[in-house]
Amino acid sequence: MNALERHLIARIRADGPLSIADYMAEALGHPLHGYYTTRDPLGARGDFITAPEVSQVFGELIGLWCAEGWERMGRPDPVILAELGPGRGTLMADALRALRVAPAFRRALRLHLVEISPVLRRAQATALAEASPVWHDDVADLPAGPLILVANEFLDALPIRQFLRRDDGWHERRIGLAGDDTAIAFTFDPLPGSDAAALIPAPLRDAPPGSLCEARPAATALAETLGARLATEGGLALFIDYGHFPSACGDTLQALRRHRHHDVLAEPGTADLTAHVDFAAFAAAARDAGARAWGPATQRAFLETLGIEARAATLLERATPAQASAIASGCRRLIDPAAMGTLFKALALAQPRLPAPAGFAEESSP
Fold first, then answer.
1. Is residue 45's pLDDT more than 80?
2. pTM of the model
3. Which of 158, 176, 206, 313 is the most buried (most CB within 10 A)?
């Protein structure tokens, strides 16, 4: 039993079972023992690899997407360029390198990063020193003004709550104590929750008994904040993540450690915890707050529209055989339906008066 599990057991003994959202918040963000606050989880030596680590082309195309969005916004100067959960800074470093072809945008942008991990902030400071980034703990701390925001694999780590439909209503799934109260285990509230119906996405509220549905209040709050801000102050936001559209029931909570699935409750704080993003619910919350929502498009369709094949061909022209193999395999992994091409999706939020962002042909349907 590790220190964080002992802390959780003491908390449950004092206050009763935890929601899964509370458990995830502790496991991922505890200041002393949390997964993200104590380590660099990325890469072959870590627990997972994200798209920016797969290929430089990913970040380069995102950078050019931002530059095109800035043009559609009327070239505001200055403009805030923000990233949520920037990892090692790889995506943004590749994006800024690509922006050498857009010097006016490069001069106008002011880089802001939302990051809670001290370990990753140090990596970002090294990778992005030339851009003089400013760090924040929360998106609400970003300065006012026109905004272009990017978030890759950020929403999936926001805490979720789970509810099981029974004949008498929705019962919340929680983390309680098992056996002799010395281990944590899943349990369900014995009575229906009074707030469940409001939290569960509207299309799922009449799901049949036996259905397990997930809600992500932190994502809803983020969508509402960004939707209101984009509507009044202008700008665009791009979210790329894995998940489903439209809304669907199902248990998608998972843990990853050393690139393999891990018991969600075992050794909390030592594995990444994620769940599928409900793109429909996120888009609906942003629309209700005043923004337009575009997509989602599959990552494959989005990157192909932005020109991934042409960019890869350019890189291959001057690549060594080893480099060429890495470029080809990396780009293939990003767009292959059997890899990241279909499960991962892109969704854009925008000020209502702006035209469709690059890579998107259709608005998100209500």
1. no
2. 0.95
3. 158
